[in-house]
## 1
Amino acid sequence: MTQEINTQAVADVLLAIREKSPLVHNITNYVVMNNTANALLAVGASPIMAHAQEEVREMVQISSSLVINIGTLSPAWIQAMEIAVDQAKKTKTPWVLDPVGYGASALRNQTVADLYKVCPPTILRGNASEIMGIAAQAGAIKGVDSTAASHEALEAARLLVNVWNNTISISGAVDQVASAGRFTQIHNGSALMTQVTGMGCTATAINGACLGVCDDTHLAAVSAMALMGVCGNMAAEKAQGPGSFQMYFLDALYQISPDDLEQRLKLEHHAL
């Protein structure tokens, strides 16, 4: 269902997460498991980190959403991801893909291609270079960090939306969300977020939480990036550096209120 995207709509998604505590099944990288699980708990969701092939179908069946993050790959994990996505297709469970480091290796590129063959993600969330790479556009990859600005990936996002009719969320100094006929920019966040490993992975997990309570995938993606951005603003006002920023960011996710969103959230809408 499509609805107007505004501060109140984002606040409603936040309150729904806290009321329903959606179960978010994560097959994510082991660098960030603790961070993303704590972030989901802080915002009000219920995380589960399960990657054994023998149990992922059962986990998807009981979950509100599925999050796949390819940051640390192995053959067994890749197979588990494919099984989980296949189950999500069968149960119509919405899922989020984070193509961490797409373009850095043939294994990462093939993993994303294989997951798409099983079932395209409901939301694809990545940095500009990852999104541009998936859309087969020119985009340099350096390690797992973005070397392109988020606005450079807009044409790539438009192409992906036209092909797959899903929602594309692009992280950057200005976060951008694109879906059929809709394009939203979120002008929040802090430069300190780039100094803490796994903040993009956290954003992907929060997308999973929002998707678990919201049928409008564009609103879900915007809400996730809005929560990340506003909490980044709140944390940066207290932090002395990256270490304390992590602590204050987690507290902000726990404390953020509709009033905080009303006072701080900066959204801008365009036709795609």
## 2
Amino acid sequence: MIDIAFAKAALPKSGALALLLGEGAALTGLAAELDAALKGGLARALAAAAFKGKRDQSAVLLAPGAGLDRVVAVGLGKLDELTAHHAETAGAKAAAALQKDEQASIAADGLDAAMLAHAGLGARLRSYRFDKYRTTLKEDAKPKLKRVTILAGDAAAARTAYIPLAAVASGVELTRDLVSEPANILSPEEMADRAKALKSLGVAVEVFDRRDMEKLGFGALLGVAQGSENEPRMVVMQWLGATPAEEHGKSGKKAAKPAPKEPVVFVGKGVTFDTGGISIKPAAGMEDMKWDMAGAGTVIGLMAALAGRKARVDAVGLVGLVENMPSGNAQRPGDVVTSYSGQTIEVLNTDAEGRLVLADVLWYAQKRFAPRFMVDLATLTGAIIVALGHENAGLFANDDVLAERLIAAGKATGEDVWRMPLGEAYDKLIDCEIADMKNIGNGRAGGSITAAQFLKRFVNGKPWAHLDIAGMAWGTKEGALAPKGATGFGVRLLDRLVAEHYEQ
């Protein structure tokens, strides 16, 4: 993690400098000051590079003079169209170009304190690295950037605006860390233990083990877990930001007292490794299934973000944590399990396991907490990648207001979602001859939709949205705000949803 600092706007005497410049705008402020110091050299260099300040455009000047080692110009596009997300992507692009410099500054004349804070957020998110297990990385291959100073006309205001954004960044980084961990390290038990660390932020955390879930009757979740030697867990996290502090209960096996009234609820699929079980996956690419817990990772990161910025909302996060393995004790295709809701399920494909995990946790969430709404996140289906690629998460919802708010939050943060259909015709595809339902539809057609229809049977009419993030949780190439690997998708999206509509 790099350090983001704020200082009064002044031309640095050494190091590296990034200039965020608007499209077609004249050089002003520090850019004009630098151009004067270089006797017009900055303007000439930008002209030679055909740099016009268009969004995502950049140019690099090496050893330009005035004591600077490097100057990076990044386009903001038309300033009257600038959004917070545009500022973030510009800050991220600048940081990506400055990784070989130990310390660097970013300046953007004409941007207010809030926009500069978002540029700092982008720089921090783009500089994330997961090098925990790399022991032979050569020095020249390591990023050197440790600190980025945002130069602002009102540094104090920009610093204040950045404080809640820094909490969100910490939540994203926590999610990325969890998703990046190998499955031999991040078992369900270990992931539950890491969720306990949120207690330091004021989150009440309860951990349910196998015996607890057997008593509850979590037959669907436990059926998935029974083939693994790694014991399952369910974690319930409560942030009572809208409840007076003196009324908070203590974390533990008992619920926080008093129970939150109509909290917003988030549920995550946490399959820490998915072999497919008896319906085993092909060997090629199976290593990617370490991040089949990304939905749960997002929920944990979101709870850290909400608590870290002291969001004025009562929020509950629940994650079902299992490992799906083949063994002599593994669930078989054709088995029938009884879910916590009492509904029975014929398991025709043990690789359609995430929906079984979510079924029990969703029912528990709505039964215990009477939520205002529920949003679940899961790397649920490969079918959603076929439909939407890696540009949008699939959104399914039984509530139009919630769906529209999620779509708007996605556009605002750059974590886009695309609404997919639900309907009776799709629901009939999971009707079953020997149980209340089966866990897959008929063939491959509409696989992400039938999976969502399955989940809908466990929300009991509560306002609900399902985000299938299978195409978004992991990047095989660098993204606007993330390096290759775990993206942390969903933390910023859902934090924005809460901030815009559900805080007191």
## 3
Amino acid sequence: MVQSVITIGIILTAALVVLGLFLAKTMDKASMVGYYPGIFCAFTGLLLILTSSILDRVDIMGAGLGGWGIAFVFAGAVGLVITSIFDAKANAEA
């Protein structure tokens, strides 16, 4: 179960970084749209963690709702950090 949560987290992180960087590059410098996918992902993870404490055991692809929530929160946090580093570097050069 731990291996599936780590795998899900890594895949979600990669997808969020690509999506965040694409949105940050296509929008103007004052726009914060590039951060929305990471915020949405972290919020969804928190909802999944809270839902897992209410519902019975639910398995999706080898991980419970709590595992999915942990993976989403991890992906959202790391995706936001990486996106903000690249966005700050791009805005500093311009």
